[in-house]
Amino acid sequence: MAGATKRDYYEVLGVARDADEATIKRAFKRLAIKYHPDHCSEPDAEEKFREINEAYQVLSDPTKRQMYDQHGFDGLNSMGQGAQGFSSQDFSDIFGDIFGDFFGGGGGASRGGPRVQPGQDMRIVVELSLEEAVSGVTRKINLKTLAECENCHGQGSKNPSNRKECPRCHGQGFIQSRQGFFAVRQECPDCHGAGFVFTDPCPKCHGEGRVEKTRSLNIDIPAGVDSGDRIRLRGAGMAGVRGAPSGDLFVDIRVRPHDIFTRDGNDLHCEINVPFVTAALGGQMEIPTLEGKVNITIPEGTQPGRVMRLANKGVKSTRSRTKGHLYCHINVEVPTGLSEEQKDLLRRFDELSHKGGASKEASKSRVNQGKNTEEGVFSSMKNFFNDLKK
């Protein structure tokens, strides 16, 4: 940019002329994130990013800021600090300091200092039957992971004090490469961010302090879990480099569909096929629950679609002490393959139904006559169904 066309640096960052250092830094970070060419699709994003960076380099430096406040751009040009006067190294330092936590670094890592490398988290899926999910179970698994080296006890060397500065990163813990306008920092592959290497590394783990290993693990799954639940086992993931903390193991629960029951939160649902005669006359039926079979009473005149609730026969959730219910949905079985005698009985039943008073007048008549008529009809129906059972 020519000096006459440049915008005022305070205007570029959107801060007052008496803004303190922290305010200037916050403004720069906000704008730099907004216009970073890797994340901004505006055609002039790179040019705006350069302008923001240039303004920050001046206003964040007390000497340059004083010169700019007193003499403007001409004062900076006289110092050799114009638009071409900012070195790539200056920009790299600012880039690492401001964007460290934005791009995944943080604390000492963003400043390039040596750091420990914790182990990675791991994730597995455990499938359970509904019975196992409701009652809880201990599941044994074999896990292929990076575990602590037994030869050096995770230290990377039997003599951890025998170490030297990493020759590749010169003790920084990272290596830096430049891709055009941007500087990219990556963890040093030789020291894994520690900044040092051993002079006598462990021959089994080659100084890393961990080796690939398959280990057995017992996972206690509490009663009441459901699909989508996740169990976190701290420290059960991959071992860290040279004694650094291990990662965590996340166990995702998946419950297989059941042949009889479906689950809705803490409640269970099932369908019961009730014989036609039992639905009409009532009776006892044995039905399954997760705790074993129980007898229930089917009221006479039970209609298809009726739902019967068995209290506290559902699931006890891991999140509460309350237990759900079992809801039985009634399906009435209509007989098939009837003999001629049975068909005749059904025709008799149909006649009795009409004689029993489907009309309002017949209904009123039965009310006026007391229960004699109703008892007679019901007695006939009972006889019919009893004949049907034969």
Q: Would you kindly provide a written description of the structure presented here, covering whatever features stand out?
A:
The structure is a single chain. The chain is of the alpha+beta class and 390 residues long. It is elongated. The protein contains ten helices and 15 strands. About 14% of the residues have low confidence.
Descriptive key words:
25% strand, three-stranded mixed sheet, 390 residues, alpha+beta, 10 helices, four-stranded mixed sheet, elongated
Query: What is the global morphology?
Result: elongated
User: Structural class of the secondary elements?
Assistant: alpha+beta
Percent of residues in beta strands: 25-35%
H-E string = HHHHHEHEEEEEEEEEEHEEEEHHH
Percent of residues in helices comes to 25-40%
Put simply, the count of helices is: 10
How can the largest sheet be summarized?
4 strands, mixed
Separation of termini? 105 Å
List the strand order in the largest sheet. Answer: 10-11-15-14
Q: What's a concise summary of this model?
A:
With 390 residues, the chain is an alpha+beta fold. It has 10 helices and 15 strands. The chain has helices spanning 9-13, 21-35, 45-59, 62-78, 88-99, 130-135, 276-281, 340-355, 360-368, 372-389; strands spanning 122-128, 137-148, 163-165, 174-179, 182-187, 196-198, 210-221, 230-233, 249-255, 262-264, 267-275, 283-289, 292-298, 307-310, 326-333.
